Amino acid sequence: MTDRHTAPQPGATPQETPRETPSADGLRLEHRGAIAVLTIDNPPANTWHEGSLKALADHLDALAAEPQPPALVITGAGDKFFSAGADLKRFTEGKATALEMATRFGRAFETLSAYPGVTIAAINGYAMGGGLECALACDIRIAERQAQLALPEAKVGLLPCAGGTQHLPWLVGEGWAKRMILCGERIDAERALTIGLVEELVDAGQAFASALELAERSTGQSPQALDRCKRLIMNARDHGLPHGYRMERELFMELFDTAAPGEGIGAFLDKRPPRWREDPTPGAGDDSRDGDQA
After folding, report:
1. pTM of this structure
2. Is 153 labeled as catalytic in the residue annotation?
3. In this predicted structure, which of 106-110, 176-180, 282-286 has the lowest mean pLDDT?
4. Among the options 133, 144, 200, 216, which is catalytic?
5. Residue 102 C-beta-side C-alpha neighbours within 13 Å
6. What is the C-alpha to C-alpha distance for residues 81 and 129, in angstroms, rounded to an integer?
7. Is 133 marked active-site?
8. How far apart (Å, rounded) are the C-alpha atoms in residues 136 and 75?
9. DSSP conformational letter for 34
10. 154 contact partners, CB below 8 Å, separation of at least 6
11. Active-site hit among 144, 153, 200, 263
């Protein structure tokens, strides 16, 4: 392990020694007091495979079942890759293998997104494809300056199938999501900070320590409150655009059961400030003014 993993870190008392669960599936789990650390360790590029994806989902289920689920930091082994995503050779083995991989990715990262504790991605290098989708499924992302981020699946005739098309627009807006997904644009960490893809930019070698510090802060919050806050924040994502469009129209028409449209439009057409606090009667100011437009 690198120095950033072995140095004393927040979340452990002086008497505590970090406890690591050895793993042969490319994923290491370590406990540091009220913080859990998952390290993607599958050289040379920390790619995901069926074993590591299953291990991620299993670890998350176990951590979530604890009376007080720990804060979770995810990082990549070494100093070059957070994760380069999936091994593309697996997708040349036919549709059945592709379905298996897509299902594993979806299960793992959906479980990560729904995890009740705070999750932080310490992006210490390249985060490409499924690697970036892992970071997108976390609550917070901290990137080192040398990091590069992309969702390049369409360049090889695929598409992001582990939440990338869903999470990215929420974070960066539709325009930048389309640039990255439809145009295959790779961005550096500074640009990622500018567009809101990451929440913090740090020097090389500092993402893990910064993530641990932030995770330690979160452990001072009520776990019950954190769980509910996360669910509330994510609630808007549970309803797609058709639901949102319908709700817009419904609430728009509800306004006509109040005095607001009559007073607001009447004030606009009369070129006066609206009298919101004078409780005008519904329909006031609705006389015809042909030719006027807002």
Report:
1. 0.76
2. yes
3. 282-286
4. 133
5. 13
6. 12
7. yes
8. 13
9. T
10. 181, 182, 184
11. 153
